[in-house]
Task: structure prediction
Amino acid sequence: MEQQAETQAIMSQDQLKILTDMVQQLLHERERNAETEDPYVTTRIPVTDLTVYPELTEALPSIEEDFFRTPLTEEECKIEIHSCPKTSSMNYISPPLNDSASSA
Result:
């Protein structure tokens, strides 16, 4: 019995050493891969989709609509955009100068 316990302990230690070596190797590879990454490239947080609570949908049914999208058709958008003048004239009147500024 005692010999079997010793054999199992030796096997456990061998397995632990093998696993430790494997973890060390993986950590070393990860460190090496991190060094080769471009310093000018940053990772972004992944996009998260949100779902609406059923109670909120019942209280406000229009929340399920795509309210960020404009309800105008493409032709209506063109008309609205082109109806605004590109430039407008403005009469600029500069503020009067102080006496101290004009004497300097």
Observations:
- Helices lie at 2-36, 54-59, 74-83, 99-103.
- Residues 25 and 31 are 10 Å apart (CA to CA).
- Residues 2-36 form the longest helix (35 residues).
- The two ends are 105 Å apart (CA to CA).
